[in-house]
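Example 3.2
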Amino acid sequence: MLPLAGPEFPTSADALKIAIEGGLRRFGVAPHEVQVGGMYPALDSVRIDLTGMQASRTQRAPVAAEKASGELLIAKMEIVAAPAYFEDAPLELAIRADHARFSYARDAERQPLLTLSGAAAGSVLIEAKRVALEELLHTVAKETAGKQGVEIKRTHLELTSRGPRLLSFRAEVTAKMFIVSAAITVSGQIAIDDQLTGRLSDLRFTGDGMIANVAGGYIRPLLAQFEGRTVPLLAFSLGDLRLRDLQISGGESLRVSAEFGETTPKLAATAAL
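Structure, written as tokens:
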């Protein structure tokens, strides 16, 4: 789903380019480059380069509130980022679709949107290095623990595949309070569904001693709040399209890949990464 600058839907390739750029900025996303080729509304290509984009925990994706009449056809659609940033963590993103169909819609404020309604073939790839996620986790842990008088000295993150759609994680944090240091651990798993939404489960906190008691007092309630919560992995919805060959893997990188569309040929989603 792509937000457009309103109030009306564009009627030319140049107007679409401007509308995409303005719509993304409305949601706090500054595109590196937007390219649109062909004659509207049956375009040859649209390429949106989000390299350098900054996303945060507080950002919200556009949501369609009502449908509108009209359809846009794009022979080759690409959304890429090499990299984009979630907080300070870099990640690679590639969404590609052949012969994509977009329907018109509007959000709750009646601003125009484009919703992906079909494609002959497509692919999605999201990848982030484990060390980058580890650094992000360390930053978040320092912010949270510092409010409780606890100093975070070291953070280590492990990612382990448990199946095509299931990943377990284990974060070991070395914390210090006064002159005492101790290791505390947060673990759990994340399962990915057909809409590229992750569901958190089996969240656990372990640790012994004074620091663990202090940390556990605010971490355990947080884990209880996040147990079963879903987290979208994409800021852009793929609409009602059904994903196939969905896989999540761990190790030195967190990698999520999938294909979609009405035909089965694979697209080389990694070619531009």
